[in-house]
Design brief:
The structure holds two protein chains of two kinds.
Chain A (H helix, E strand, L loop, with lengths): L3 H5 L7 H10 L5 H11 L2 H24 L12 H4 L12
Helix pairs in contact in A: 2-3
Chain B lengths: L8 H8 L7 H10 L5 H12 L13 H18 L1 H13 L14 H14 L5 H19 L9 H5 L26 H8 L19 E5 L9 E5 L30 H13 L37 H9 L2 H31 L13 H4 L11 H8 L11 H6 L6 E3 L14 E3 L6 H4 L16 H8 L2 H22 L6 H10 L4 H11 L1 H15 L2 H15 L6 H13 L3 H13 L12 H9 L15 H14 L10 H22 L4
Antiparallel strand pairs in B: 1-2, 3-4
Helix pairs in contact in B: 2-3, 2-7, 4-5, 6-7, 6-10, 11-12, 18-20, 18-21, 18-23, 19-20, 22-23, 22-24, 23-24, 26-27
Chain lengths: 95, 677
C-alpha cells in the first residue's frame, strides 16, 4: 500500500486544503498518481477508510520490523516487505 | 362343486378305478395341482397311490407300462451282454419291484422316453436306482408340463424319498411339448426373450446337506408359437441332488444343437437323437451334466418363478439357470461388488469435494480442515487416529431435513485437549478428553509450555508483564490480545480510543488482567502486538496457531469481512505460516464465499469497485427475508465455522466463547424460522 501522507510530506491528520496544496507542489509525482491521491484523501469516506488502513499498516510496519527475528517460518505470501516498506519505522514520516 | 373342475378330474378318476399304475409322483402332482381337493381326499389318494407298487412278481401280470419299463432297462443288456443278462435283469427288477415305478407311457412318447434313457444311461449304470430316479425325474418333468395349463409345481418328493443321486438335468426341445396347447404364462414373453429359442428346463434341489428351497423349471418352446412355461417347485429334499439344465442360452434356435458347455455326454445324446429319431422334425436333445453341488447361499436369491428381463446380462442370467456353486458365487460376487460400489461412490465424491476449496459449493458445505489442508504438511493437525474425532461432526446441508434439526441440535460436544509445548515431537499425538473433564484453563493452557526465551527482549510493557505470568495465563492472554487488537482496529478505524477510556483501563489494569490486555491493544498496539506474536510463535504449536486463526474467523467476522480484518488476518496467517492459501480455504469453508482480495484503499480503482460493484449475496448471511434454503445453508456454514474440532487445542475459555457465538447464531436462526413453525 502506498503511504500517501509520506509522499505528500504531511501528517496523517492534515486537512483537505493541505492535501490539495501538497499535491500541487509535487514535482516528481506523476499526474495520475497525484489525481489518485486527491481522489482518495479529499473524499471523506475514502479518507476515513484509508486512514484506518494507514494506521494499521503503520502498526504492521513496526511489528514487521520487530518480529523478524522471531518468525523464522514467516510465509510472506502477501509480500509484506514491499507492502510495508513505506510504513517501516525508519522510513516513516514522523507525525 | 369345485370337485368337478378339470384339474381334479383325472385324480378322481384314477382313484375311483383303482388304477394301480398311477404313479405316486403323478398322483401327488395331481393333488397339488388340485388345490380344491379336501385334505381327507388327498390323504386317501396318496395312500392308494403309495400301494400301487405292491405288484405281482409275475412279469406278465405287471401292467403293460411297467413291463415296458423293465424291458427298456433290460433289453439293452440283452443286446450287449446276452439273453442271460437280460433275464437276470428282469428277475432283479421283479424282485425289487417296489423300487420300480411304472412309467406312465400314455403321456410320453417313445422318443421322449428314449432320450431320457439315453441321457440317464450316460450318467448311471442301467438298473441302478439312480438311473431309475433319473428317468423318472425326466418323466415327471415332462408330465408335469402335460398336466398343467399354467405354472405347475413339480413334486419331487418321491425322488427324494428314493434317495435320488446328484443328478437332474433334462432338456427337451419343442417337439416334446409341441402337442401342448396350454395357454402361456403371463411372464413367458420375458422368458422367451431371456432364454432364446430353446426349451429350458432347470431344476435345482438341495445340495448335499444344504437345503436350497426352490426348484425352477423353465420351459420354452423353440418356436414363437410354442408356449414356454415356468414350472416351479417350492421345496425339495435335503438329500436330493443338485439338478440343472441350461443349454438354452447356448442353443441358438437350432433344434439339434447342443449346449456349448455340454459335456461329451451331451454330444452322444445329440448323435443318438439324430440316428434313432429321424422321423422327428426336430430331434430330441437331452443333455446331461454332472451334478454340481450348490454350496453358495446365493441360491436363496432364487424365487419360485424366475423371470429374467432382457436386460439381465449373460453373466447373471446363465448362472441363474445353472445354479451351480460357481454361478452362485458369481451372483454373490456381483451383489457384493454392487454394494461396495454403492458405498464407495459417495465417499469418492465427498473426498473429491473436500480436496479443494475451489470445489466448495455453499449448499453442500462440509468443513473438513484436515482434508482441505492436507497438501500443507505443516498443518496436518494430528495423527490419523486423532483426525476422526477432531473432524466430527461433519455437516451436510442436504442432510438437514429441516431447520428444526439444526436448531434443536445441541452444541456439539467440545473436546478439550491438553496444550502442548510449541516444541513437540514429530509424532505428536493429542490427548483428548471430554469437555466435562476437570481440566482447568491453567492446565489446558500450556502447563507443559516452555518458559519464554529470556534472550528475547520484550518490546512493550505488556510483553514484560506477560513474561512474568504463568505460561497458562500468558497463552490465554495472548489470544485475548489478538481478538481485542483486530476488534479494536476494525471498530475505531482511524480514531483512537478516547482519553477517558484509556484512563479507565489504566486504573483497572492493576486488578484486571483483561483491562491490561485491552489497554495494550488500544494504546500500544505495535510493540504489544510484536511481543504477543512472538509468544504465539514460540509457545504455541502450529496446530494451536491455526486454531487461533479459526477462532478469530469464527468470533470476529460477521458475515462480511471488513478491509481491516482482511488485512490483519492475512498478516496473521503469514505469521503463523499458512499464508493466503490456508486463510482463503478456511474462509471459504466458514462463510461460503471467497475471501476478497487484499484491500487497497490507497487506490482509486479499489474505491470505485467498492461503490459501484454490487456485492454478492453472502451465503452465511441470513436476513429477515431469508428463505428456507438460505437458512439451511447459513446454518450449515455456521456449524462448520463453530465446529468444536477447530478449537479443541485451545483452552476452555476460548471454547466457551465459540459456543456462546454459536448459540447466538442459532437463536438468530430460530427467530427467523419461527414464523414458519
Amino acid at each position: 500500500m502506498r503511504n500517501h501522507y509520506r509522499t505528500l510530506g504531511l501528517a496523517a491528520d492534515a486537512d483537505r486544503q493541505e492535501i490539495l496544496d501538497a499535491c500541487d507542489d509535487l514535482d516528481q509525482v506523476e499526474d495520475e498518481e497525484a489525481a489518485e491521491i486527491v481522489s482518495v484523501l479529499t473524499n471523506r469516506n475514502r479518507r476515513s477508510g484509508y486512514d484506518a488502513m494507514h494506521h494499521q499498516y503503520s502498526v504492521l510496519g513496526e511489528v514487521f520490523a520487530l518480529l523478524e527475528p522471531d518468525v523464522p517460518d514467516f510465509d510472506d505470501s502477501n509480500h509484506w516487505d514491499r507492502r510495508l516498506v513505506e510504513f517501516m519505522p525508519d522510513t516513516q514520516v514522523s507525525d | 362343486m369345485f370337485l368337478c373342475n378339470k384339474p381334479i378330474r383325472p385324480a378322481l378318476e384314477a382313484a375311483r378305478s383303482g388304477y394301480k399304475t398311477l404313479k405316486f409322483q403323478q398322483a401327488l402332482t395331481l393333488i397339488k395341482s388340485s388345490h380344491w381337493l379336501t385334505p381327507a381326499l388327498s390323504a386317501a389318494l396318496l395312500a392308494m397311490s403309495a400301494t400301487v407298487s405292491a405288484q405281482s412278481s409275475n412279469f406278465n401280470e405287471l401292467p403293460t407300462n411297467l413291463q415296458n419299463a423293465i424291458k427298456r432297462i433290460c433289453l439293452p443288456m440283452q443286446f450287449s451282454k446276452g439273453t442271460q443278462a437280460y433275464r437276470q435283469c428282469v428277475t432283479e427288477k421283479l424282485s425289487s419291484g417296489t423300487n420300480i415305478k411304472p412309467i406312465h407311457s400314455d403321456q410320453i412318447n417313445f422318443d421322449q422316453m428314449f432320450a431320457l434313457q439315453q441321457t440317464c444311461e450316460t450318467r448311471f449304470d442301467i438298473g441302478q436306482s439312480d438311473y431309475v430316479s433319473c428317468v423318472r425325474d425326466g418323466i415327471a418333468t415332462i408330465e408335469s408340463r402335460e398336466l398343467s395349463d399354467t405354472t405347475l409345481p413339480v413334486d419331487r418328493g418321491s425322488q427324494a424319498t428314493d434317495g435320488n443321486s446328484n443328478f437332474v438335468r433334462v432338456t427337451t426341445q419343442s417337439n416334446i411339448i409341441e402337442r401342448q396347447s396350454a395357454p402361456s404364462a403371463p411372464d413367458t414373453p420375458k422368458l422367451a426373450g431371456a432364454l432364446g429359442h430353446a426349451e429350458y428346463v432347470a431344476t435345482s434341489v438341495d445340495a448335499a446337506n444344504e437345503k436350497l428351497p426352490n426348484t425352477i423349471v423353465l420351459a420354452q418352446a423353440t418356436t414363437p408359437s410354442k408356449t414356454p412355461r415356468v414350472i416351479s417347485r417350492p421345496q425339495t429334499s435335503s438329500n436330493e441332488a443338485t439338478t440343472e439344465t441350461s443349454p438354452g442360452d447356448s442353443v441358438t434356435g437350432s433344434s439339434t444343437s447342443t449346449a456349448a458347455n455340454s459335456s461329451a455326454n451331451t454330444e452322444t445324446s445329440s448323435e443318438t437323437n439324430g440316428e434313432n429319431a429321424p422321423a422327428q422334425n426336430t430331434a430330441t436333445n437331452v443333455a446331461a451334466q454332472p451334478a454340481q453341488e450348490s454350496t453358495g447361499s446365493g441360491a436363496n436369491l432364487l424365487s419360485e418363478k424366475i423371470t429374467l428381463p432382457s436386460w439381465v446380462p449373460e453373466e447373471v442370467r446363465t448362472p441363474l439357470g445353472k445354479l451351480d456353486s460357481n454361478s452362485l458365487t458369481g451372483i454373490g460376487l456381483v451383489a457384493i461388488l454392487t454394494a461396495m460400489l454403492a458405498l464407495l461412490l459417495p465417499l469418492m465424491v465427498g473426498k473429491r469435494r473436500s480436496n479443494s476449496a475451489a470445489d466448495y459449493a455453499p449448499d453442500t458445505a462440509v468443513y473438513d480442515p484436515e482434508k482441505s489442508f492436507l497438501d500443507e504438511p505443516q498443518h496436518q493437525l494430528r495423527p490419523e487416529s486423532q483426525q476422526a474425532a477432531a473432524r466430527t461432526p461433519t455437516h451436510d446441508p442436504a442432510a438437514l431435513g429441516s431447520m428444526d434439526h439444526v436448531l434443536d441440535d445441541e452444541t456439539p460436544a467440545v473436546t478439550t485437549t491438553r496444550v502442548r509445548s510449541a516444541v513437540q515431537p514429530e509424532n505428536y499425538s493429542a490427548t483428548s478428553s471430554t469437555h466435562q473433564s476437570t481440566v482447568s484453563d491453567s492446565e489446558a493452557l500450556g502447563a507443559e509450555a516452555e518458559k519464554p526465551d529470556p534472550a528475547r527482549q520484550a518490546h512493550s510493557e505488556l510483553g514484560q508483564w506477560l513474561a512474568s505470568c504463568n505460561p497458562d495465563l500468558r497463552q490465554r492472554l495472548c489470544i485475548q490480545f489478538l481478538l481485542h487488537w483486530i476488534n479494536f482496529a476494525d471498530k475505531t478505524g482511524d480514531k483512537g480510543p478516547d482519553h477517558q477510556t484509556i484512563q479507565q483501563l489504566r486504573s483497572d489494569m492493576l486488578e484486571d488482567d483483561h483491562a491490561r490486555i485491552k489497554l495494550a491493544a488500544i494504546d500500544d498496539q505495535a510493540r504489544s502486538l510484536a511481543d504477543v506474536l512472538g509468544y504465539i510463535k514460540t509457545e504455541f504449536s502450529n496446530e494451536q496457531q491455526t486454531q487461533i486463526l479459526n477462532l478469530m474467523l469464527a468470533v470476529l467476522v460477521k458475515t462480511e469481512i471488513s478491509p481491516i480484518q482482511n488485512t490483519l488476518l492475512r498478516f496473521f496467517a503469514d505469521v503463523i505460516g499458512i499464508g493466503n492459501r490456508g486463510l482463503e480455504a478456511r474462509f471459504q469453508a466458514a462463510f461460503g464465499y471467497e475471501l476478497p482480495p487484499m484491500p487497497r484503499p490507497d487506490r482509486e480503482p479499489w474505491w470505485q469497485k467498492q461503490s459501484t460493484v454490487q456485492q454478492p449475496t453472502r451465503p452465511c448471511f441470513v436476513g429477515e427475508d431469508a428463505g428456507r434454503d438460505q437458512i439451511k445453508v447459513a446454518a450449515s456454514l455456521a456449524r462448520n465455522r463453530f465446529n468444536p474440532a477447530l478449537f479443541d487445542l485451545l483452552g476452555n475459555k476460548e471454547q466457551r466463547l465459540v459456543r456462546r457465538h454459536y448459540t447466538g447464531f442459532k437463536e438468530q436462526l430460530a427467530a427467523l424460522q419461527e414464523p414458519e413453525l
